[in-house]
Write a structure and sequence with these properties.
heterodimer; A: mainly alpha; 11 helices; 72% helix; 1% strand; B: mainly alpha; 3-stranded antiparallel sheet; two-stranded antiparallel ribbon; 22 helices; 6 strands; globular
Chain lengths: 299, 632
């Protein structure tokens, strides 16, 4: 079972994310009084991208490696996740520090790819992406650290369950912070500043096309689902059903609902400038620090 | 041959090396050759000595030399052997590196360089082995300070190097004064007494005296390591002025002698001074000082466009991690519970591990910075870009070192940061201060990453050098790459064989007498070839497995590659697309000063904002200093 769990994780995070993108596009279309593409459209997009020419603007290994590394490290992060509150064979070898750093590695690969392309739009995007990582990663980190402090362990299943182990002041404050940060975690409006299509032409991805771009798109989708997954498995872990199947089903339902929320917020909010966003993130960091402080004090 | 005679042999070879450079004054090439060979030889002897002490001795090596009427105590225990090993490795790589570097990039006559460098190494050997705060310490310190003063002074032309060298000298002398003066306050102090004796004397002194004593030593050794705000005064200037091979030694070992000093004071001497030493208070002080240092140093590093200054600021940040770990170890130990005391040991092992790691990868970065300087003659990131195609080997080595220093998974930096930070979190369950400092340490890693993304990204990838540099850029000569490769291999071993290094460090701690944490149980940290784990009874609390993660990443990379090629898409080369109106050129390429500009603005209060880069060539050409570019 501990080995099978790895593959269940892998399938879960490979199959579902494009569907969630479909949900986002559908909802966004409804808000804008359009009909929108069918829910399975993102799967077709990926397949189509894989068949297109692979354009290379800078023939160096960094440019070619970046999409692979982004995709691989994102998958490496998600296969470590505990399934149904149980560690799998890989998550016994790693703890939450590995998880956090793997997520950072995935973001970092996008930056290196963007810089390697040599395109100034890509570099602007990379600069913004790095600033976002710097300011947002602490919020993610502190959510899990709260669990680690509560649970007294850094192993993933223990730490994730620790967050909701007792639902006091720190729990609700951290939940609020996480919800406020969610839109930025999934980099949708008003926080899609690194990509900002109409402004800097998708920023980091400007030179990527075809299969390379498909990998980046896929990575982004998986990343988005991961953040919704984390919310469910950290803050709602006390609601977990006994059966694995029901657990997964419930996760899918809640994650889909979260994506509906994300799409509605995204479709109705104009983009922030990066300096405004930095201030907003700094505010979240302070709140999250307070939440961890309360957690240490046992509140 | 006995260990003591090996010690003297190493020093003798260094003396010979210095003398031979003076003999070959007229023949620069010969001075370089004999210096390189003799220094390499002495580093081998030194390495052998360290191994001998670590693996064959049951007790630390102690001996005295008599000088005039004074007896100078020497102590080579496990901990100093470890640092001697680091010194030996870095001496070797620096010697090999500079043999080629000095030929193509001469800032000073060879005989001068090679007659002084051995003295620096001798001074460092002295600082790592001398066991007093009096005559022996003074001799070693002055040897180290004056030789490195000249090396910094000769690193660039006079106009640019007089000031940083002088500042360096003044601060080092101030540090010396504080360290040597401190024990005179202690009742019954005998000039030249070993540290243990000072500790015992301290126990009999008053509270105030011991407070002043520890404050002075913290300031003295803190100055040396680069603790905030003391390091900011001299480190950026000195490290970016000296020749890269020298900077590699300065950042790799010289700084670590300060770390060793702090360890000796707060973890060895303090044991004797127990009733007058509050581990809680000093733990908190070191913890806060370290956290400030690591955060401020790293944020300041982001702001630099001069890549040598960037590396210098970042070493302040990295030393901050070590001080942070020393503080949290002390604080965890002082809480008294058996669990916390064992975690304190885990954190301390992490601090030593990080010292070794930082020694290796920061030296590697400085040497590779030297490669860049050698080929491009500029230290300005704004003028670089796209060098990966021209200098692939240097690029790969920089990528490895950057990856390691940023502490990404399955790198040497990751293992040591994991030891320090996870130990900190586990020990800090009920301590707000420990947890908050741990969080700051954890997310400062993202700043470190940003620094090195900037360094690697804007020098090697991106574009720009082909228009902005007036010279033809070539890959550097082989010895400079070999020196780098040597360090890179050690760096990889530190990443993938953590258990071997942890065992080595535990062994060295067992071989160091009078260690404060000696009573803590070592069972908490267990491991195999594949992973390290922190245990509490049956329950595991934290784990790291570099080889497993590497394996996982490789499998997934192949999966990604298979996916990319699944539809047989062909690769087509195209120029960069700028909306169809323009090609990529000098005017529109992205310059370093724009990178992270809003973040720099947001963190202006951390200081280090001035960002002017002055190249030696620019001065030679214009004969006047260009106006300072103020960067907003």
């Amino acid at each position: 079972m501990r080995i099978v769990a790895v593959f269940i994780n892998l399938l879960f995070f490979l199959l579902l994310p494009p569907f969630l993108e479909g949900v986002m596009r559908k909802i966004t279309a409804w808000v804008q009084s359009r009909q929108g593409p069918p829910l399975y459209q993102p799967y077709l997009d990926l397949l189509k991208l894989l068949r297109k020419e692979n354009l290379v603007s800078a023939p160096n290994w960094a440019f070619r490696l970046a999409p692979l590394l982004a995709f691989a490290s994102m998958l490496a992060a998600v296969v470590l996740l505990p399934l149904h509150g149980q560690e799998n064979i890989l998550s016994q070898k790693a703890d939450l520090m590995t998880l956090i750093y793997l997520l950072t590695l995935s973001g970092f690969s996008i930056l290196i790819g963007a810089l390697a392309s040599g395109n100034p739009f890509g570099s602007v995007g990379a600069s913004r992406e790095m600033m976002t990582i710097i300011m947002l990663e602490p919020v993610l980190t502190m959510t899990i650290i709260l669990g680690a402090v509560r649970g007294g362990t850094l192993n993933l299943s223990g730490a994730l369950q620790g967050v909701a182990s007792s639902r006091g002041l720190s729990y609700f404050l951290m939940l609020a912070v996480y919800l406020l940060a969610l839109q930025a975690f999934v980099s949708r409006q008003p926080f899609d500043i690194p990509e900002a299509e109409v402004e800097i032409l998708e920023g980091p991805y400007v030179e990527y096309s075809g299969p390379n771009y498909a990998l980046f798109r896929y990575t982004l989708n998986i990343k988005r689902m991961f953040y919704a997954w984390l919310l469910v498995n950290c803050f709602l872990s006390f609601l977990r059903p006994v059966s694995l199947f029901l657990d997964l089903l419930l996760q899918v339902v809640v994650i889909t609902l979260l994506f509906v929320l994300i799409s509605v917020v995204g479709a109705t909010h104009p983009r922030f400038r990066i300096d405004q966003a930095i201030k907003y993130y700094a505010f979240l960091i302070v709140l999250a620090l307070v939440a961890v402080g309360l957690g240490v004090k046992g509140l | 041959m006995s260990a003591t005679s090996l010690f003297w042999l190493a020093l003798l070879i260094l003396l010979l090396s210095s003398l031979s450079a003076l003999v070959f004054k007229k023949k620069g090439a010969l001075a370089g050759l004999s210096g390189t060979v003799l220094m390499s030889l002495s580093s081998l002897v030194l390495f052998f000595l360290a191994c001998r002490v670590l693996f064959q001795q049951v007790h630390p090596l102690e001996f005295e030399i008599h000088f005039l009427s004074l007896a100078i105590p020497f102590l080579v225990d496990g901990l100093s052997s470890l640092f001697l090993m680091l010194l030996a490795v870095l001496t070797l790589s620096s010697a090999v590196f500079s043999s080629a570097f000095n030929k193509g990039f001469r800032t000073v006559a060879d005989w001068k360089f090679y007659s002084v460098l051995p003295w620096l190494i001798a001074g460092l050997i002295g600082l790592l082995t001398v066991d007093d705060l009096g005559p022996g310490f003074t001799m070693a310190w002055q040897l180290m300070v004056w030789s490195s003063y000249f090396l910094v002074r000769w690193g660039r032309q006079a106009k640019l190097s007089v000031r940083p060298a002088l500042v360096y000298l003044l601060f080092m002398e101030a540090a010396w004064l504080m360290i040597v003066a401190a024990p005179f306050l202690v009742k019954g102090y005998r000039f030249g007494a070993p540290l243990m004796e000072i500790g015992k004397n301290l126990a009999g002194s008053s509270q105030v005296v011991s407070l002043v004593f520890f404050v002075l030593l913290l300031l003295g050794f803190g100055l040396k390591t680069g603790m905030f705000p003391l390091g900011q005064f001299w480190i950026p200037g000195a490290y970016s002025t000296a020749s890269p091979a020298v900077s590699a030694l300065l950042a790799g070992v010289l700084e670590k002698t300060g770390v060793l000093g702090l360890m000796r004071i707060f973890f060895f001497l303090a044991r004797g001074a127990q009733p007058n030493f509050s581990a809680t208070f000093w733990g908190k002080t070191l913890l806060m000082a370290g956290t400030l240092t690591l955060f401020i140093g790293t944020v300041q590093a982001i702001k630099q466009s001069d890549y040598l200054r960037l590396l210098a600021y970042s070493s302040i940040g990295q030393v901050g991690y070590i001080i942070f770990a020393l503080g949290s170890s002390l604080l965890a130990w002082s809480s008294g519970s058996a669990t916390s005391q064992s975690l304190a040991l885990v954190i301390f092992v992490g601090a030593v591990y990080h010292s070794l790691n930082h020694g290796i990868f920061k030296s590697l970065l400085f040497l590779m910075g030297g490669n860049l300087l050698y080929s491009t003659r500029t230290r300005d990131l704004n003028r670089l870009g796209g060098l990966l195609a021209i200098m692939p080997a240097t690029g790969l080595l920089v990528a490895l070192a950057s990856y390691s220093i940023a502490g990404m998974p399955a790198s040497s930096g990751f293992v040591s940061k994991w030891l320090m930070i996870s130990g900190n979190f586990l020990a800090g369950r009920n301590s707000l201060l420990l947890t908050l400092c741990g969080i700051i340490a954890l997310f400062t890693a993202a700043f470190t990453l940003a620094c090195y993304v900037k360094f690697f990204g804007l020098a090697f990838t991106s574009a720009g050098a082909r228009w902005k540099l007036k010279r033809e850029v070539k890959e550097v000569p082989a010895p400079m790459l070999i020196a780098g490769l040597f360090l890179a291999l050690i760096c990889l071993s530190q990443a993938f064989l953590p258990m071997a290094y942890v065992k080595l460090i535990s062994r060295s701690l067992n071989l160091s007498e009078g260690f404060l944490l000696a009573g803590s149980s070592q069972d908490y940290l267990t491991g195999s070839l594949f992973n390290l784990r922190i245990f509490d009874g049956q329950q595991w609390l934290a784990a790291v497995s570099p080889l497993v993660i590497l394996f996982l990443m490789v499998v997934l990379l192949f999966l990604a590659r298979a996916l990319r090629q699944s539809a047989g898409s062909a690769e087509v080369q195209v120029p960069a697309w700028l909306c169809g109106y323009q090609d990529l050129n000098q005017e529109n390429v992205y310059a370093d000063r724009n990178m992270f500009s809003d973040l720099k603005k947001f963190f202006w209060w951390t200081g280090g904002n001035s960002n002017s880069v002055v190249d030696d060539e620019a001065i030679q050409a214009a004969k006047v200093l260009p106006e300072k570019e103020a960067d907003s």
